[in-house]
Amino acid sequence: MTTAFHIVVCGSLVPDPLQTLEPIQGPTGPALKNEMMLPSVLDPWAGHSLFEAANLAKQHPGSKVTLISLGPKAKLQQLMMIIAQKVPFELVCLDGSASGFMDSREVAVALAGAIEKIPGLDKTKLLVFGGCSSASRDAGTTMQMIAEQLGVNDVFLAADELKVQPGGSFRILERIEGGQYQVSTCAGAPAVIGWATGNLPEPPNNPQVGMTNMRTIMPALQKAQPAALKTDAIKFASVELPKQQRQTRIVKDTPVEEIAQEIVTWIKG
Amino acid sequence: MSTINAEKRALMSTLPGDDVRQIMWRFTDRYDLQMVVQSTRSVARGVVARMVADKQRDTHEWTPEKAAMLKSFDEAGITAAFMEPEQGGYISGPKNLVLAMIAFELCWVDAGAATASLANNLALEPIHEKGTPEQIQKYMGGCVPPKPGENRKIIRGSFALTEPLPYVGVDAGMLSGRIRVAEWKEGQEPILQVEKRGRFITNMGYANFVTASVDSDDPRIKSSCMIILEENDPGLYDRGAPTLKLVHQLSSTHDPIFNLKVPASRIIGGYTIKDGVIIPNFNNSEVIEAVFRRTRVTVGIMTTAKLLSAIEPVIRYQRTRFRGGSSVSAGTPRYDLGIQQKEDPCHRLVDVWATGEAGAALGFEGARLFDAFDVMEHEKDKLFTAQGIKGARAQMKAFMEPRKKALEYIELMAQPEAKRDAKRVTELEGDLLVQYLVKESLADVYCPAGKLWNTGYGATMMREAVSLMGGYGITEDCPGFLTQKWSDAQLEATYEGPECVQRLQMSRTMENDIFLAQFKNWIKDLRDLAKRKSEMGAEVLANAMDLWLWSLVFLQANKDANGKTLYGGQRQGVMFPMADALAWLLGARQLILDTLELEKKGPENPTLAEGLPGVLNFYSDLCGVQAARAAGEVGKVCAELVYGYQLAATALKPFAELRGKTDASLVGIRFSKDRAAEAVAQVMIPEALDYPL
Ligand SMILES: Cc1cc2nc3c(=O)[nH]c(=O)nc-3n(C[C@H](O)[C@H](O)[C@H](O)COP(=O)(O)OP(=O)(O)OC[C@H]3O[C@@H](n4cnc5c(N)ncnc54)[C@H](O)[C@@H]3O)c2cc1C
After folding, report:
1. In Å, how far are A46, B557, B622 from A189, measured between CA atoms?
2. Lowest-pLDDT range of A4-13, B297-306, B321-330
3. Is residue B9 part of a domain?
4. What is the CA radius of gyration of chain B?
5. Distances (CA, A) of B609 to A199, B621, B670
6. How confident is the model at residue A2 (pLDDT cuts 50, 70, 90)?
7. Class at the top of the CATH hierarchy for domain A6-241
């Protein structure tokens, strides 16, 4: 017997990592320079979780994937032109800031609230997926708080693999230190899983999949409600770039030994 | 320092992104197109860029890696984008804009990849335009990648018009490819013997079928035609040797030889039999005319994409030029701006950028025109068939009244909306043949103009982009593959009809009074715009358009000092430069129109809100730059032609006045360039290119 799941993936956009991300003081608090104008991508870990969700749903007929995104609606629409081509899903959109400077608790409350409101949600089939942390905030706290809000007790973080066992339980691999995995068994849904990279490659784009998805995605975007996020929920005393700045240098065909040597020299200072 | 320039204006903060492009190129509502753009982009900047970086361009052979590229086109929906849903495609309606978008995205990285993709559509285009329903279903359907579970192999095609010397090429009317009746049994389908040698035929290394241009060599076949050849037809299907080309190496080009027996049902568009003679429903010229008028639009976009792709790598090179030097410390202008501290490199980059933007504006407008025109043409054909109107002469007669009405319509449209006879406008807008003529007059000019200017002048400006990278520009390590893009541009200017063919077509179509009537309206519109927005160069452009029009009329009406016709006959030396001049004007005007569209629709997009004033300022300045450059070209061309064939400067005062007026309206325009250059020197760019070196 196979189990059907309702997999809800929490994921939104982050600025394209190739861009210069420079913190500035905006009118309502810290922000990134030109953030609205910069191209954005699907938050990478959340992206992996979406692909894992689609794969799991495919293996378990009757399953369904819903992507819940909290982000600026117009920017999410652009992102959908890429994401919607990759795997089938339905979208629930919360219109609000996806900035890394938002309080993760506020975000978790908004997302959990939206999950609760999904029509016909059956919590006994619910798997909430997301990234183990977001590339913008990198706090790694949102998924636990969503679980707390939903009253789901089984939470796994930095997962790379979820296997549904013959009896319907899950075997989950979570990353721990030293390149090792913690292996857990979970009796079944509901569960909250914050993914690391998972094991799947990024699916190629397929405009045909995209156009099918867009039939439900566009209305979802149009229906998007403003997310009631308090901007004063968190106060930043100061914001600055981490000391170690990225120095991108592109050198072709450098031997591995030479690269290693350079890193060693750099570490030694 | 001038007050105009000292004024603090919002500067463009980031490079224009997809939101801006979607508005300017009018596809905000086309999600299908937006998706094709994204999926093509990921193939281009992934698989294709990797191949270029891995030196796949260094071989003329069709390698497994190149073959895998086609597979990734299939998977990304690129191959099926040309097909109708009932054939297995997924986009319904005309495909000119979508194909232009695909070409744009692929050429952003490598034009040869685009050629490999587009040549398959080129092979199908004769069938798509003129084929019988059976031919359409078989070949269009066959070129769709098999869906999961479907047991069939995809087929791919080549288009074979060009022949070895001494024939075809520019003068495509002369063919040495031949067809004869090989066998014709009573009551059965005739079998034809086809002999064709091709030269420079794209996709030929692997094509399963070929659409070939041939002439009749048999009194039992009335005319030339295009015919479909298949690799398994009895006889010789020799792919020939690969062409040792120095450009577009990711596509396959061969000189094939065919000597095959094929059923007459392969004649594209079918045939009838009268008095024992096979009469092809369409001769070769009719087919290729329908083909090229569309496919050339796409080629125009190719070079343009490369110009725009050069902006980011050039800025990065210029900015980081002195970093790492012991005397250059972080935070100094020399460190932050590098070469961009100097005026000339920024000005030249603005010229490259403006050329790219004007080319895109012109090319995509051409594609959109054909999308609209395709629908009308289809309806017109239906109407004429129903009315039994057949052949060029009968059609011309049927168009006599609508021509007058088209001119009336254009004249009505010149009046302010409140003053127009609204009822008559609605009537004429509902008249298919009138609207057909209006659109056709534009399409017939925009297509060759885009192909001519975007590729020809684009190639020249691609060289400028390379030169902005110094010595690095001409090495294999240059980010953005700029030298490859420059040399590739020469092919884009050559295949599907080199520049002279486009000039020749324009020299006829730009004389069309329906086109010229619209051209006059545009001058008025630009003058109105100039009152509202002086920095866009609308005034100088309007004056340059007046100057061009005056010169055209003068050259048409007057003879040279030896009494020979100036505009007309074989006088390519007069007509061709006028065509070039017009292309400059059309590009500059279309860039203004696209910028106005951004001004109108930009505020609807909340993502753009923050940066829109800066983006609009930048584009307005590019418009000014481009209008000034166009006016300069037009002035130069027209002065040379108008005065150059006279012995004494007789009664050319009106010309001198118009030219003087045009020059004088350049007042202040150079500040547009300064401002655009300032934007170029501070706009934020990504930290690295999003495709490999
Ligand atoms: C890589 C590559 C791929 C190609 N792919 C295909 C393909 O898939 N299918 C296909 O059929 N063809 C293909 N071609 C052929 C291409 O379309 C022709 O090369 C092109 O049309 C020019 O013809 P030509 O080379 O014979 O030039 P020519 O006809 O020799 O022209 C050379 C030059 O002479 C001048 N000239 C010639 N005639 C005139 C005239 N009447 N008036 C004024 N000036 C004139 C012009 O300056 C012109 O540019 C390809 C070519 C290349 C290089």
Report:
1. 19, 85, 58
2. B321-330
3. no
4. 26
5. 39, 19, 28
6. low
7. alpha beta
As for ligand 1, residues whose beta carbon falls within 6 Å of it are B 119, 158-162, 169-171, 200-202, 245, 248, 253, 491, 494-498, 500, 572
Last-in-domain residue among B142, B165, B183: B142
CA distance B18 to A269: 43
Structural domain containing residue B49: 19-142
DSSP SS3 for A262:
helix
Task: Output the average pLDDT for chain A.
Answer: 92
Q: Which residues of chain B make contact with A37, given a CB cutoff of 8 A?
A: 13-14, 17, 607-608, 610-611
Q: What is the DSSP string of B262-276?
A: EEGGGBTT-EEEETT
Backbone angles phi, psi at B221, to 5 degrees: -125, 120
The residue whose CA has the least distance to atom 26 of ligand 1 is B169
CB contact under 8 A, B607 and A72: yes
| B76 contacts chain A (CB < 8 A) | yes
CA neighbor of B43 nearest in space, from B97, B98, B109 = B109
Whether residue A211 and residue B32 make contact (CB cut-off 8 A), yes or no, is yes
Asked if residues B460 and B453 have their Cβ atoms less than 8 Å apart, the reply is no
Please report, to the nearest 10 degrees, the dihedral formed by the alpha carbons of residues A111, A116, A120, A125 taken in order. 80
Most B CBs within 10 A among A20, A73, A81, hence the mutation to make, goes to: A81
B335 touches chain A (CB under 8 A): no
State in Å: Cα B101 to ligand 1 middle.
25
> Could you tell me the two tokens for B339?
């070469």
Q: B299 and B447 share a domain? A: yes
Model ipTM value? 0.88
